User: Fold Glutamate--tRNA ligase from Roseibium aggregatum.
Amino acid sequence: MTVTVRFAPSPTGHIHIGNIRPALYNWLFAKKMGGRFILRFDDTDLVRSKQEYADSIETDLHWLGIEPDLKERQSDRIANYDAAAQKLKDAGLLYPCYETPDELERRRSRQRALGRPPVYDRAGLKQTAEERAAFEAEGRKPHWRFVLPNHDGNPFETRRTDVAWSDLCRGDQTIDLASMSDPVLIRADGSYLYTFTSIVDDIDMDVTHIIRGEDHVSNTGVQIAIFEAMGAKPPVFGHHNLLTTIDGEGLSKRKGALSIGSLREAGLEPMAVASLAVLTGTSQAVEPVASMDALIEKFDLTSVSRSSAKFDPEELKSLNARLVHDLPLEAVESRLAAMGISGGADFWDTVRGNCETVDDARAYWLVVTGPVESRIEDEDQEFVSGAKALLPEGDITLETWGEWTSALKAETGRKGRGLFMPLRRVLTGMDHGPDMKALLPLIGRQNILDRLP
Assistant:
C-alpha cells in the first residue's frame, strides 16, 4: 500500500500560516513514509473560487518546497459525485428534506427550550410521495440527508452507536452517532457539500491517511459511516491542534493577516515559516530547521499537543534571523545579486550576523558603497576631526581598526563607547551594525577619508 495524503484548499482567498500547517503536515508525512501528496482544489463554489487564488496557493506551496505528486480540481469531477449520490439514493441512504432554514432553526430552538439536543428528527424520512409532491408543487427544492447507521433497522428508534478510530495525533477516539443529526450532503440548489465530495475523491484517489485540524474531529464519525456505506475502507485519521494568534483567536484568510504571500514579501525565509508552522504546539523545541529534509526527519505527529498552538510573529522574526545568520553565500548569492550587491563572501560573512532577513543586507551594502549620511554629535566634533590624521597608512586590513583606535585612545584618552561610537556614526550613519574591524576594509580608504570631516 502506498501512503497517499491530500491537501484540499478552497481557492477563495490567499492561504495563511494556519492553512499551511495541514499542508506541511501532510507533505512531511508523505515524504517520511515514501508516499504521495495530492493537491486537490475544493473549487465547487463557482462564485467565490478564483483562478488567481489557485495560482497563489501553488506559488505559496512551491516557495515552501511543497511539490504535489498529483493536482486535481473538484469542479472537474461533478459526474463522479452525481454517480455516488445516485448510488446512495438507490440504497435508501440519501433522503430528501423540504424544510426551510427558518423552519429548521425554529425546530432546534424548541428542542433546546425543552432541554433536548437539537438533533434532526428525520421528519423528511417519514414523508410520503404525495407529501413530497405537494412540497414540489409549492416550488420547494429538497436538500438531501444521509441516514446515519445509528439504529437496528428502525431509523426512528436510535441507539448509541460508537464509531472508534485510533487517531495519529490524539490516540483512541470515539464518536456516538446517536448524538448527531443526519448530515446534509446535497444542498437545495443541487450543489454538494464538501463532506460528500471529499469522501468520493478520497475513495477514487486511494487516499490512505487524512491529516487535518482538530476542528474536524466531530465530523470523523459521520465520515467513517459514509465511507463504509459506499463500500470503502476508511482512511487513517490524524487531527492536529490549530494555530491561533497569540491572543488565542483563530486565523482567517478573510482578514489577510499572516498570509504566506505577505510573509514572503516581508523577506522571511521559507524554512523559518515551515519550522514555526510545524513545531509550534508540539513537545519539540521550536527552533529553526535548515532544510525540508531535516524537517522530515524531525517531524512526528505523536508530539502534537492537545492544547492550541499560539503563533507569535515575533518568534517568527527570531527564527528567521537565526536561519539567516547561518546561511552560506551560495544560498543567498543570487538574491544579493538581484539587489545589486556584489561583495562576495567577504561582505556576506561580515554582515549576515546583523541581518534579520537577507534583504537587510541592502542597508549594509549602502554603508560599504555610500553615500552615507554621517552623524556627528556636538561633543564629538573635535575628536572626529582629528581622527583622519591618525588613520594608518597603506591598505585597509583587518588590523587597521585596532591600530587606528589604539592611536586615537593614546592621543585623546577616550575609550569604550566614547572612542568607538563616534567613528561608527561618522563612517556608517548607524549606532549599531557589523564589527567595524571587518567592515572597515569593505568601506575602503577613499570612502573612509571622504566621510571624515
Q: What stands out?
A: The CA atoms of residues 94 and 146 lie 5 Å apart. The chain is about 45% helix and 10% strand.
